[in-house]
Amino acid sequence: MPWKPKTICRYPGCHELGSDRYCDKHKKNVAKEQNKSSSRIYTYQWRKVSKVYLKEHPLCINCERDGRLTPATEVDHIIPHNGDMKLFWGQTNWQSLCKKCHSKKTALEDGGFGNVSKHP
User: Fold this and answer.
1) Do 29 and 55 fall within a single domain?
2) For 20-64, how does the pLDDT look when each residue is reduced to its tens digit (9 = 90+)?
3) Are 63 and 74 in contact (CB under 8 A)?
4) Which residues form the HNH nuclease domain (predicted)?
5) pLDDT tens digit string along 78-94?
6) Handedness of CA 98, 93, 45, 54 (dihedral sign)
7) In terms of domains, do 52 and 104 share one?
8) What is the pTM of this model?
9) Which residue in 91, 100, 101, 118 is a FRET match for 111, CA 20 to 30 A apart?
10) How far apart are CA 72 and CA 55, in angstroms?
11) Same domain as 105, residue 54
């Protein structure tokens, strides 16, 4: 694998170099914050409701549009909710996607995986 140059940490006020988005010191902090904020929203109730939604909408809508029948594994928010509970729970804002399509969509919306700037 080719060598990747180190970059400046994206944590506010930090100017350390790291091999990823964050220096070693801030990687764990950022991961903890992401888990803390998402665990407040993606609760047991969400997991229950999203399972029911996937049973009712079992195919990935992106793959289906392209002529492929792929089982959906994730419920996606069409318009990112950014903590807005009305958007979060509004089923008209949900769609069934496979893991691959959901990851692509998230990367496009956030500008890459793990972007914390969009989290509250």
Assistant:
1) no
2) 777 878 777 776 665 555 567 888 999 999 999 999 999 999 999
3) no
4) 48-103
5) 998 888 999 999 999 99
6) negative
7) yes
8) 0.63
9) 91
10) 9
11) yes
